[in-house]
Amino acid sequence: MTKEIKIILVIAIIIIIVGFGFIFWPKQDQPSNTNQPVITEPDNNQPATTTEPEVITTDLDMSRWVEYNYIDWGLNFKYPNDWEVKKMLGELVLRPKDCPEVPTGYRDDYTWGSAISFYRPSTPNEATPPENSLLYIEPSNRKDTYYKNGEDMIHKIIWVDGSDKKEKAMIVVRHKELTMEIRTSGQCLSLTEEIKFLDAMLTTLKFYK
C-alpha cells in the first residue's frame, strides 16, 4: 500500500468519525417542544405550577355564620356560629365550642384545643416565606394547590408529617405585601373537615389595611 493511499484512508476515516459525531452529538440549542404545557417558574420558593389558580369556593351553608373583625391585623372574615375565637400572642385560634381540651404532655396539664390557627400577617422584611419551613418535605409526600380570592393569592400545602405519619395542612395567603400563615391542627376535627371549614372562611376573608 503506497503512502498516498494510506493518507487517503486516514482522511476518509477522520471524515466518517466527524460525520457520525455531528449526527449523534446532543443538540444543546434546540427549541423545546411547543406541545409541552407552559410551566410558571417557582417564586419565593413555591413549587412550579402549570395552571391558572382557581377561585376558591365552598358548598357549606354560611347563612348563620358570624362576622369577625380584627382591627389589630386589619382583616375580616366569617366563622361558624357554633365555633369560638381566642386571641393569643401573634395568633388567632378557632375551634368548635365542643372541642375538648388536649393534654400538653406535662403531667395532668391540659390546654385549649384548636382546629384552625391564623398567624399575624407579616411583610417580607419581617419574616421568611412560611413555605420555607416545609422545604424538607419530599414532593411525593406533599400536595400544593393554588387558589385566588379577589386580589389575594392562596397557596395550600397538604403533607404527611414524618414524626407522626399524619396528614397536615398549611395555607399561605398573600395580600399585596402581606403574608399570612394559617394551619390546621387535627385536635378537634379530621383534616378533611378542617380544610372544608377553612376554605369557606377564606371565601369571606378581607384585608382592609
Layout of secondary structure:
Elements: H1 3-24, E1 54-55, E2 66-70, E3 75-79, E4 83-88, E5 91-96, E6 102-103, E7 110-111, E8 116-119, E9 142-149, E10 152-160, E11 167-175, E12 178-184, H2 191-204, E13 206-207
Explain what this protein looks like in three dimensions:
The chain has 209 residues and is of the alpha+beta class. It has one domain: Protein Transport Mog1p, Chain A (3-Layer(aba) Sandwich), CATH 3.40.1000. The protein contains 2 helices and 13 strands, in the order H-E-E-E-E-E-E-E-E-E-E-E-E-H-E. The protein has helices spanning 3-24, 191-204; strands at 54-55, 66-70, 75-79, 83-88, 91-96, 102-103, 110-111, 116-119, 142-149, 152-160, 167-175, 178-184, 206-207. The strands form 3 sheets. Strands 1-9-10-11-12-8-5-4 form an 8-stranded mixed beta sheet. A 3-stranded antiparallel beta sheet has the order 2-3-13. Strands 6-7 form a two-stranded antiparallel ribbon. Strand 9 (142-149) and strand 10 (152-160) form a beta hairpin. The longest helix is centred in the N-terminal third of the chain and has 22 residues, at 3-24. The N and C termini lie far apart (92 Å). The model is unreliable at 27-42 (pLDDT under 50).
State the shape. elongated
**Regarding CATH, which class?**
Alpha Beta
Q: What is the chain-wise order of helices and strands? A: HEEEEEEEEEEEEHE
Low-confidence stretches: 27-42
Count of helices? 2
- Amount of helix: 10-25%
As for the number of domains, it is 1
Strand percentage: 25-35%
CATH fold name: Protein Transport Mog1p, Chain A
Identify the strand order in the major beta sheet. 1-9-10-11-12-8-5-4
**What does the average pLDDT come to?**
80
Give the CATH architecture: 3-Layer(aba) Sandwich
Largest sheet: 8 strands, mixed
Computed CA radius of gyration, to the nearest angstrom: 28 Å
Classification by helices and strands: alpha+beta
User: How many strand segments?
Assistant: 13
Distance between the termini: 92 Å
